[in-house]
Amino acid sequence: MIKKLTLFAVLIILAQFSFSQSFDKNKLDAYFDTLGQYNKFMGSVAIAQNGHLIYNRTLGFANLKERQTANENTKYRIGSISKTFTAALIFKAIEEKKISLNQTIQKFFPDIKNAEKISISNLLYHRSGIHDFTDDQEGYLKWHTQPKTEKEMLAIISKGGIDFEPDTQSDYSNSNYLLLSYILEKTFKMPYAQILDKYIAKPLKLKNTFLGKKINLKNNEASSYRFEGDWKLADETDISIPMGAGGIVSTPIDLVKFSTALFGGKVISQKSLAQMKTLNGKYGMGVLAIPFYDQAGFGHSGSIDGFSATFSYFSDGNIAYALTGNGTNFNNNSISLAVLSAVFNKEYQIPDFKTVEQSTTDLNKYLGIYASTAIPIKITITKDNTTLVARATGQSATKLTSKGNHEFKFEEAGIILSFNPTANQMTLKQGGKEFKFTKE
């Protein structure tokens, strides 16, 4: 929920390809076997075509302490993918003529600044100007595990103020979709959990999709983890805080069912769907555009605590893809690329996670502060015993893995740092782009 966009939101494949149900599933299984062997990912993926499941794979544990192995029905928090569900529910309310896109939020939240100018459409498009309550990290992380009432959350949002005037720009804000959750409850006169169940989960037979509560291991719900040399249990955000902005629990199998139904016009009308998919600034309403080859795909990504998730739908071939994870020590975008490349018969490589041991003395030649004329950041390279550490301007420190030949990787973000100690230079490689840095 906190991470605003993943690289998957700008995934682009340029070469032409065609879909085949006879893709090499053994190779894709080998890809996931490698991720599991090297503690790179715990979670599940699913692919469907025309509503029929053609591949799914699950890795790791739902709960490590209890040694509870995950399976295809293990339920994961999906973070901001919840926003797609919330947007669809808002259109349900619009279709029932309970609310309208252009009405302001003043009658619902009179104490929020600019409420008389902010429309429901502005909330859906992230164009309200309302400050994102998760942006205040130092404060948010002190209370995010504690239950909050609507009154308390509205006070927090009101205190955050506004970042810009309504409909003047796009800026992702979880506050928008929390407010939409409250609007749904006031409009339908029932809790968000019941609205979700009545209008989406039950009609589509999504048996593993619901608004979360306290994680229930007996219900095959996954705990989440962060990798710190080994998997460490992550904090658990109280669902009263994100609600429809990031509080839904689901599985990849349910998510591909949902996206197939949504983009097939079986959740909301085609007119409403067209509005959801129409971009205004950076975003659609509860969905993001995902260019893939020359087709316009749509989907969303999400993260909350140690959970991460992605879903996408491509009308060309009626392909639906979803990933949910409860532990990631790798770049999820790379996983998505591998799965989709397999399905669409594109070449991809099984990653090599073998590392090269370096002594603390070996690392000295890389230490220093590096600057680039291409991008306005500096990268400080330090070491922690035999591990090289990188810290970019305004970001936290990141431990790197040595691959030999003066090359180091940060797998989770798909970053490679290639050093030329003789020339006091370093090249940053990510997403097919390269940036030259020089030691100061």
From TrEMBL:
Q: Which organism is it from?
A: Pedobacter terrae
Superkingdom field:
Bacteria
| Keywords, sorted A to Z | Signal
For the Beta-lactamase-related domain, which residue ranges apply?
41-331
Tell me the InterPro entries matching this sequence.
AmpC-like, Beta-lactam-related, Beta-lactam/transpept-like
- Name of this chain's protein: CubicO group peptidase, beta-lactamase class C family
Q: Where is the signal peptide?
A: 1-20
Q: Establish whether keyword Signal is in the entry.
A: yes
